[in-house]
Design goal:
The protein is mainly beta. It has 2 domains: 41 residues, no CATH class; 99 residues, Immunoglobulin-like (Sandwich). It is 10% helix and 30% strand. The chain has 1 helix and 10 strands. The strands form 2 sheets. A 5-stranded antiparallel beta sheet has the order 2-1-4-7-6, with no helix packed on it. Strands 3, 5, 8, 9 and 10 form a 5-stranded mixed beta sheet that branches. The longest helix has 18 residues. 14% of the residues are buried.
Length: 174
Amino acid sequence: MTRISTAQVALGALCLLTACGGGSPSAPAAVAGTPATPAASASPSPSPTPVPESTPTPNPAASPEINDNDAPVFRVSANVYYVDCDGQILEHSKGASEIPPGCRAHLDATAKDEDGVPTNPRYPVQWRFGNPGALDVRGSNPMGPIVTARFPHEQEIYVHVDGIDSNRFFVRFN
């Protein structure tokens, strides 16, 4: 066999080993009587690094549901967060005092420390309703129950958190 044929056989064996996972590209195979020469490999061209777009940094508002503040509760505010009818949120329903028939009022309470920062209650939250038998109260968030009227009526509502009463508000369920 000629020297070129031997090199072609060695290169073919190297490609076969590499394709089957049996060899290492850094250790080329040698054929008896032929010095091992590394095969030319195509090096990938460097990818351009994307330039990050500058985005304005938002000023996030503290969320009453997610915080790590465990300071004592100093004050509590409560209101109708929003109203939904058949799964559709009524526009401008925050703080609503009139709830249409069959709609649900999503309530919200926010406990704050003496600096006005939302804080976590230490004890169970207690919602107080003027006529609890007139409401169906649901939801897993103790700071935001969902209420539906069983019949038309007016309701005084407030929440008691860690010994502090919130503001009282009135809602008419039509």
